[in-house]
Amino acid sequence: MRFTASVTIGAPAARVFAWHARDGAFERLVPPWESLKIIERRGGIEDGARTVLEMRAGPVPVRWTAVHRDYIAGEQFRDEQRGGPFAHWVHTHRVTARSPGVSVLDDDIDYMPPLGPLGALADPIFVRPRLERTFRYRHAMTKADIEFHERYPTRPLRIAITGGSGLIGRHLVPFLTTAGHQVIRLARGGSATDAGTANWEPTTGAIDREKLDGLDAVVHLAGANIAGQRWSDAWKREIRDSRVGPTGRLCAALAALPSPPRVLVSSSAIGYYGDRGSDVLTEASAPGTGFLSDVGVEWEEATAPAAQAGIRVVLARTGIVLTPAGGALQQMLLPFRLGAGGPLGPGTQYQSWIGIDDMLGAIVHAIHTEAITGPMNATAPEPVPQREFARTLGRVLHRPALVPAPAFALRLMLGEMADPLLLASARVLPERLVQTGFVFRHPAVEGCLRHLLGQP
């Protein structure tokens, strides 16, 4: 059997091919609804390279071993299944130039489902629809990623990241490496010999100065998960202490480097604004009141040593980051799929959100845009009342969204954090991003959810 799909990309063929050859391309192409992970990888896409994946057929884990062959630099590579769920699978990836600055990516798959004639009968019901859904997502991602990076032409940058294993960080790394940038992960116990990691001790400020000297940018994402557990006095201290102190020590260390980075994008959050009802909030709005607002103010103030050293500091006040691979959306999916979803509390509170890919794009835009200094709201331009978000998610999943979660029940279940995380209202607009020409992939919540969940 044969499956084909193609997409036109506004970039030269050489750049499209190079994107596929770089570290992180596979991670960018895996749909977030798929349970798929790399078990082993040898090489890239050249002949003889080998990748072993683990996927799921329902609850059953299945190994898939693919070996690359028929590599033609700048034009083609092919992977063949040597072990896995299909009776036969050969996937050819081909890039051709259509005109100057425009190219076409063709995917051509020869395959045979398992179970012989029975598998062939099941193909139009199970296999082909899954392939169509997967490649619709893959091509949308390939086109959007490459065309995004074409808007920011630059030499390869050296960028250090803290919090690289967190929700944003683990997506940001492949987004940067596929663009040709070098990423250095800052973490406890970073290797002195591995060029991709560097030691950073958040509690003491100790840092690998040699690897960080002369960086182009630092993206600081580290901090304890605010919703990681029910709030107690000890956990609230951890939330604050994992942000304020480490940020101050990191900024002091960067300021002391012989050649400091030219820009620091430091994570903040829209919790800075507190519960503000239907008030429209921009970067010029004052902080609110309450625990998260107080933490936000201290967190941002801790970047002062970097700013005083002449480093351009961007404070990314991040909204609710949407991806089924983690965070709030992942937690909402099961009840909604069971038909038990609905609005949280009154449902009138504004939910300021951003799709994961626009979050990554906003960070890169901030790195490249000299006009952005200080606060930058990392939210989509169309915040929605929570009731509307719930209805939209239900519609995308073809489920009702009629089962509300009353405020008192949320407070009983979650305690103190229910109000600031689920019931507070913040209608936050990304004024700084819009003013500096940032182009959102998904400005409206329905389009974002349909893309992330593979629901056209």
Q: Please describe the biggest sheet, giving its number of strands, its sense, and whether it closes into a barrel.
A: 7 strands, antiparallel
Assign an overall shape: globular
| Low-confidence spans | none
Classify the helix fraction into a percent range.
25-40%
In CATH terms, what is the architecture of the largest domain? 3-Layer(aba) Sandwich
Rounded mean pLDDT score: 95
CATH topology of the largest domain, which one? Rossmann fold
How would you describe what is shown here?
- With 456 residues, this protein is of the alpha/beta class.
- Helices cover 36% and strands 26% of the residues.
- The chain has helices at 13-21, 25-29, 116-150, 169-177, 209-212, 233-241, 244-255, 291-301, 304-308, 327-337, 356-368, 386-396, 407-414, 418-423, 431-435, 445-453, and strands spanning 2-9, 37-42, 50-57, 60-72, 76-83, 88-99, 102-112, 158-162, 182-187, 197-199, 217-220, 263-269, 280-281, 312-318, 320-322, 350-351, 353-355, 374-378, 384-385, 427-428.
- A 7-stranded antiparallel β-sheet has the order 1-7-6-5-4-3-2. A 7-stranded parallel β-sheet has the order 10-9-8-11-12-14-18, sandwiched between helices.
- A hairpin with a 3-residue loop joins strand 4 and strand 5.
- The longest helix has 35 residues, at 116-150.
- It is globular, with a radius of gyration of 23 Å.
- The model has no long low-confidence stretch (mean pLDDT 95).
